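Thread: Newbie trying to understand structure tokens

Hi all, I'm a second-year student working on a class project, and my supervisor (Dr. K.) asked me to get a predicted structure for one chain before our next meeting. I've only ever worked with sequences, so writing a 3D structure as a token string is new to me. If someone could post the tokens and maybe explain what I'm looking at, I'd be very grateful. Here's the chain:
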Amino acid sequence: MRPYRAHFRCITRCPGEYQLDEVLYRCPKCGNLLEVVHDMEALQQRSAAEWKKLFEDRYMRTDWPHGSGVWGKREWVHPHIRNENVVSMYEGGSNLFWAQRYGAKLGVEDLWVKLCGNSHTGSFKDLGMTVLMSAVKQMIADGKPISAVACASTGDTSAALAAYAAAAGIRAIVILPRGKISTAQLVQPLANGATVLALEGNFDDCMKVVQRLAAEEGVYLANSMNSLRVEGQKTVGIEIVQQFDWRVPDWIIIPGGNLGNVSALGAGLKMMRELGLVNKLPRICVAQVEAANPLYLAYKNGFDKFEPMVPQTTLASAIQIGNPVSVKKAIRTLQEFDGVVEQANETELADAVARADATGMFCCPHTGVALGALEKLVAAGTIRRSDTVVVVSTANGLKFTDFKVGYHQGKLPGVPVCQYANHPVEVPNDYGKVRDTVRRLLGA
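---
Reply by user tm_fold:
Sure, no problem. This is what the structure looks like when written as tokens:
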């Protein structure tokens, strides 16, 4: 049987193939990003039915490391990693939440939310970090001189990097924009022993610094411009279809900041179609926050020109990115998937979160951007009542308790009126008055 193989290749198809254990992030010829390309002829040695059975047999089981939602699909992700080098927290396998009540309010009969925040460090970044850190562990085992792994982050990447690096016994360096992430996000890399540098500036400034460190100091770059990160994240689309018993939804809506996630989503779905597991592709919507919306502005102009911007302050801090490194990959994906880009402002994202939370969810502000985009697409008739829609929830709402508290206290920056705020009712320690209050509220 022909062995499974994968390699790096330039996204603009410059000549040349590069091994996955090379420390390389951009094409040496043109400077564009790389992508991981698999030997599809080798993968086609298994039929679509055989792949489905293999993935089902492994899914959430105890056979190391295949119970992971990522490593259960290892042949499609990184076929060269040896078992002893896999660094996994059994990521993936997150709930596909049927948002029946919320969808009914919007007029969507078949709405689902993929809860990627139900993961070890509380975000979808675990899906990519398990692959990257496993690759680094194997490179070190094979003699590569890597002293540390580093990332720029607005919170979630740093948490995933720090946790997986700690599990692997590898040093982690995290560069964060000072004062621009939540306390919960800051404490995660600190608790896991990472070296945390709080930089005065925004994410784009942090990204410039970490790229220089990677080029000049020999640390390994863990941001999504590293194509190994994207390989793990592409399993979210495969897993969604698997959870639908191999049925493809009509729409997938995903928040967009640095834009590696949308190209990852597309890569997994395209592999499924090429290998015959599905025969159609969903439409994709990238949701951007109005304060950091360069992709949205480019989309409105037909992608004729992309212009970076200086992002403004936003509650959706993880996607407060004005110069996304994966923009070319994202635009290509949107064009292949008949995609759209929509935006949400601060009030729209906060109110969308409150409406969703009131039906049983507990959303992060970035998921709120996706929900706000969903509401606009439904109102415009772009998404129809009968469509099956999946919103990708990128992080756990528990990372953003200040956002939640601020909304329900009516004190959220940038949101003048929190119309769905739910205030606690103060009552004395007197049963009669408690009873009367309950009766009054139930009768309201």
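A couple of things are worth pointing out once you decode it. The mean pLDDT is 95. The radius of gyration is 22 Å. Feel free to ask follow-ups in this thread.
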